[in-house]
Amino acid sequence: MSYDVFGVGNAIMDMQVQCDDAFLEAMGIEKGIMTLVDEMRQQQILDALAEHDVHYCSGGSAANTIVGVADMGGTAAYACKTGTDGFGNQYLQEMRDLGITIEVPQMEGQTGTCVVLITPDAQRTMLTNLGISSALDKNDIIDTEIAKAKYVYVEGYLFAGESTKAAALQAIELAKKNGVKVALTVSDPFLIDICRDQFQELIEGPVDLLFCNEIEAAALTGMDDPIDCAHEIHKHCENVALTLGKKGSIIMHQGEAFPVEGFEADAIDTTGAGDMYAAGVLYGITNGLSWQKAGHLGSHAAALVVAQLGARLPGAFSKETIGQLLK
Questions:
Q1: Residues 48-81, buried b or exposed e (16+ Cβ, 10 A)?
Q2: Beta-carbon contacts of residue 123 (< 8 Å; ≥ 6 apart)
Q3: What distance in Å separates the CA atoms of residue 249 and residue 230, rounded to the nearest whole number?
Q4: Mapping DSSP to helix (H, G, I), strand (E, B) and coil, where does residue 321 land?
Q5: Which residues pair with 213 in a beta bridge?
Q6: Cα separation of 20 and 55, whole Å?
Q7: Please, are residues 45 and 257 in contact by the beta-carbon 8 Å criterion?
Q8: Considering only the top CATH level, what class is 62-109+132-325?
Q9: Cβ partners under 8 Å of residue 202, min gap 6
Q10: Phi (first) and psi of residue 142, to 5 degrees
Q11: Which of 45, 56, 60, 277 has the fewest Cβ atoms nearer than 10 Å?
């Protein structure tokens, strides 16, 4: 079996809870970013929200994208590390039920978890305990599986740990060896502070497609205007997909800038918006769409996701649905 996209990233069970800004302030939580925490801190937050409903869903940045590709009708595989606990079993079952291939064996320990706090303005604030996910290493990346893919998609969060960074670099190296394209998502602005040189080297080298948002692009280039940022990154990277929130995105391809409009949405939860945008782009370019139409698909998918709780499309995308969207 061949894959449109082979993803490499964290395996995180998301626990999504709605709260207000006052709760974040009272608990000393910085809004709108991802913070690494231990299990005790997560439990403290959940205990304080005991009367609120918790929505559980298999997640992780790259995992959300891979699920999106599968939901759109694409073929996909994912390399991640799960524990032998209940969350790990649930995670693997959810992914495999979607037809996603996962060959990495489970490991004794706690599967990664993330408390996702969603405020009324649809912003998500993430408190992540990586658990056994941080044990993913280069030996978990299988040469023959990478070779089956059109694109390898690597999440930037992996570069925060030595073992997971080695896995990411191994995937990139094997992709290049096998003539497979490489896509990288920056994942979070904080990573640029600690991984700037590494990211720059990858962008100027093996990365064929970079996903980033306007904040990350500004941090990478030192420029303010998103269009200037996109052109600057494109000097070093063959393809760039720079998201602008509800304003849409900019796709850079073969020296041209393609503006992609955003779709109107009554946003409830922005969790996974960028991940689903990446899914649309990756599905599109591996299934015969132009770069601009792939961006268009990504924007529509992101709009559908933010209008609900959780980072999953509301029902599988059929070929007919995609065709109608892109007329």
A1: ebeeeeeeebbbbbbbbbbbbbbbbbbbbbbbbb
A2: 31, 32, 270
A3: 10
A4: helix
A5: 243
A6: 17
A7: no
A8: alpha beta
A9: 172, 184
A10: -100, 120
A11: 56
**pLDDT tens digits, one per residue of 288-312:** 999 999 999 999 889 887 766 666 7
Q: What is the pLDDT of residues 226-249, one digit of tens each?
A: 999 999 999 999 999 999 988 999
The pTM of this model reads 0.92
- CA dihedral sign of residues 166, 151, 279, 15: negative
Return the axis-axis angle of helices 214-221 and 189-204, rounded to nearest 10°.
Answer: 60
Express each pLDDT in 105-150 by its tens digit: 999 999 999 999 999 988 889 999 999 999 999 999 999 999 999 9
Closest CA relative to residue 285, chosen from 69, 1, 48, 49: 69
- Residues shown for the chain: 327
Beta-carbon contacts of residue 224 (< 8 Å; ≥ 6 apart): 218
Tell me how far apart the alpha carbons of residues 67 and 228 are, in angstroms, rounded to a whole number: 32
Relative to beta strand 34-36, strand 209-213 is unpaired
Number of Cα atoms under 13 Å in the Cβ half of residue 119: 16
Distance CA 200, CA 133 (A): 25
pLDDT in tens, 152-190: 999 999 999 999 999 999 999 999 999 999 999 998 888
- Domains in the chain: boundaries: 62-109+132-325
Which tokens is 279 given? 């899914």
User: How does DSSP assign 71-86, residue by residue?
Assistant: HTT--EEEE---BSSH
Beta strands in the chain (DSSP E): 3-8, 12-18, 34-36, 55-59, 76-79, 112-118, 124-129, 149-155, 181-185, 209-213, 239-243, 249-253, 256-260
Residues in CB range of 131: below 8 A, 6 or more apart = 39, 83, 109, 110, 111, 112, 113
For residue 228, what are the contacts with CB-CB under 8 A and spacing of at least 6? 221
